[in-house]
User: Fold these one by one.
Assistant:
Number 1:
Amino acid sequence: MPFPTNFQWGVATASYQIEGAPYKVGGGRSVWDMFCERPGAISDRSNGDVACDHYNRYKEDVALMKELGIPNYRMSIAWPRVIPDGVGKVNAEGLAFYDKLIDELLESGIQPHVTLFHWDLPYELYLKGGWMNRDSADWFADYAKIVVDKLSDRVASWMTLNEPQCFIGLGQHSGVHAPGDKLNFKEVLLAGHHAMLAHGKAVQVIRAGCSKPTRVGWAPVGAPKIPATNSPADIDAAREATFTTTSKTVWSNTWWNDPVFFGTYPQQEVELFGSDAPVPRAGDMETICQPLDFFGANIYTGDIIKADPVTGNPIEVSHDLGTGRTIYHWAVTPDALYWGPKFFYERYGKPIVVTENGMGLSDWVARDGKVHDPQRIDYLSRYLAAFERAADDGVEVEGYFQWSFMDNFEWYEGYKFRFGIVHVDYQTQVRTPKDSAYWYRDVIAANGIV
Ligand code: GCO
């Protein structure tokens, strides 16, 4: 059995995607509230005002998690719910919501894994420049301290930022996520630098504020490359492609993880980005590079790479014609959960936590009252088999968080794309565990795929 006995099986969600009631009892506005008001920004014209109404139904949701035998829950905190203006006055009622939620989880035997930032930046901070403002690192550290002081007596697992590639890249470069900006590349990288500083400062706050043993990490996009064949040349090419970047893009593994784990920006990208690359101030890289306990990554798919027969250089090749696709049209590539953990473990040397993995579909309640999602079961079982193989090959694996516990607000796709193992009827808020939820319960009980 390659998964260790203390392996963390879990599910993941994020505040804006499930909670609803963003302004309830004193909460503030986030950039996602702003973005959703923009005509055309969200494909079904929806927003997170109600979402899964988790704010009001958290007890029911936790009870369902317990019933489904889920021992670990990755959740995030809405910064503007806790500090409506992002800095300054704390909204006691907002903080109390998370306090009650954590108690409810622990009373149900479920360990909370808290992400401090899953994209709902306070709107008031956006007006001050958001991540473009170097002070954002301190704003975030101050917010982290409020949360850590309140919850760290009970929360022993923390993640700072979710997917900087997305909230910086999609949020401020391509503009398809909140706040919807299209900055030039130099400014994008500057915002990213500040986000990494925020990460480092938050890690310091967590370490200083926690009295009991605590695991700390972050949850970037993990974009592994998959070798086209098992030839050593293709494997080397895939490894090289996983850790290099060929254009001015933030879709990089190394741009974000090298500073955080090694304290340096990757030289190859610094050269490629030229004068767009940020110039760190004295001490910045030391602040960014705080000791972390695990390598977290959200992994959904991977590109296929082979070695150029003459030069050996990586070349991207198409997925096989007719390859299975998720509702986002992401290729179904289970080997991403073999090669990703393997390459990341080789380079960064930390135990791997898959902080997200799952399949978006458009599923519905069938005439028999159940939700049949055989494709999701097949997807998850293939990916888990690959992860298990990585463990078998000596990769230290610490946890796996399925995205997502329940259907929710899927950003610019609104409520059309469903990632849950629990179906949510948005008219009635009725939750229906899908077939995959019962399947996952059995996987967890067996500590591996069944
Ligand atoms: C992500 C996000 C999730 C998405 C999921 C599916 O980190 O991209 O963490 O919020 O909903 O990945 O797209």
Number 2:
Amino acid sequence: MFDFAPDHDTPKPSLYADLAQSAQALIEGERDDVANMANLAALIWMSVPRLNWAGFYRIVDDELVLGPFIGKPACIRIAIGQGVCGTAAATGLAQLVPDVHAFPGHIACDAESQSELVVPIAVDGQVRAVIDLDSPHLNRFDEEDAAGMELLATVARQIF
Ligand code: SME
């Protein structure tokens, strides 16, 4: 049994340090990429408050393709460079979007989403996937969330 009970009052740096440690424990010794992404999506969902979508897009044949996630059904394919996810994939940089309506080319999968954080997962300098978090609250994510999710991305790198 996986026994991890996140406390949402925990300061963000500790929350994300615990998240990265739990993620490492979850994927340790398992080499099925779908199973590992599915478990990490569930782990993010139970650890990070105030989300309406959390999951993966992987680069397959030069485009982003939907991977395991929690939330409403989402767009399946996103061109590199398009939307928030495609921008993270194209630049290799985290995208912290306080108001999705102000982001040129934002792709709306769930009308409830108001803010978004996307971090790339790179292996040997090549982006292989992104982790996408959506929130129904404006300005939900800050630099501590971005740093925390980048830490998680360094763990998730082992999947790819
Ligand atoms: N909003 C994203 C699309 C993916 S969904 O949020 C799940 C984007 O602009 O790339």
Number 3:
Amino acid sequence: MSEHASKLGPARELVDPFGRHVSYLRVSVTDRCDFRCTYCMSEHMTFLPRKDLLTLEELDRVCSAFVARGVRKLRITGGEPLVRKNILWLFRALSRHLDTRALDELTLTTNASQLTRFAADLKAAGVRRVNISLDTLKPDRFRAITRWGDLADVLAGIDAAEKAGLAVKLNAVALKGMNEDEFDDLIRFAHGRGFDLTLIETMPMGDIDGDRTDQYLPLSIVRARLMDRWTLEDIPFHTGGPARYVRIAETSGRLGFITPMTHNFCESCNRVRLTCTGTLYMCLGQNDAADLRAPLRTSTDDALLMRAIDEAISRKPKGHDFVIDRRTRRPAVARHMSVTGG
Ligand code: SAM
Ligand code: SF4
């Protein structure tokens, strides 16, 4: 039983039908972005009408409801979370749950393009760590992958995060024919600065302009290639997420692998995802979802909202079934990662 109480009496923790405790909520605060990464979005995206978005106050309310129900970690993501207007207000509001120790961690995933402006204020709002997406260290390639991004801004953002005292983890999506010759450099860069690095397989989410089978690079292959040059030592390090970590003996740094396509990480899944319109996805790889915006807007009391959350968690599926192959060219789920927030 949680120590937290709500207006409904003592709040129960969220446990799904498979006995998994939901203790981690990822929240996409916008579907918009200042980049157009080729694996994530098409160049000409139609974004959601602003009236459909949860307001910052509504985001605070729904996050706080989850915290009252035992969620201990909140990750703010997007789209690009730092392009949402007045986003610092939300971080500052949510930090009250860090002060009461109801929450262990308030964090974000960002492309770092805006971090020179935000790093110090995020640190002051209680953020301790930040995940930064960086797929390449080559400026031309960076432009090709992100279409609109500028590597110099991102590197400056990483510097700003470090200067502000934020711990940095870098995430790189492994892309066939795009950055597969750069993993050594990314390892040297990340570990040289004391950052963890995680490699991610592309997931078939949303229509993009290209063919995903052209981008998909199984991490089993990457790992085997890395072992020709580096000593990878399995370590029992877990962040509660789907990454499996090794230590690279030569750098002493950690390297994570997120392999939704080649490894099933669903057994230990502790998370659910909220979109910027208040739709709760119980699994990244399934279409089943629950609308939390209607109960939020129907009453100022949280009773309806709590009931909707309970009902949703009771439907959390056992796992996903992502497939990328030549026969399955359609995305496994129609929504883009920028909607669910990765
Ligand atoms: N804009 C922020 C960023 O890029 O870090 C946060 C949102 S982004 C959707 C979160 C993560 O999802 C990024 O690391 C991105 O590389 C990853 N991502 C986006 N689309 C993906 C896909 N189809 N497969 C795998 N990872 C993807
Ligand atoms: Fe934007 Fe992140 Fe998607 Fe790239 S991966 S387009 S930075 S939301």
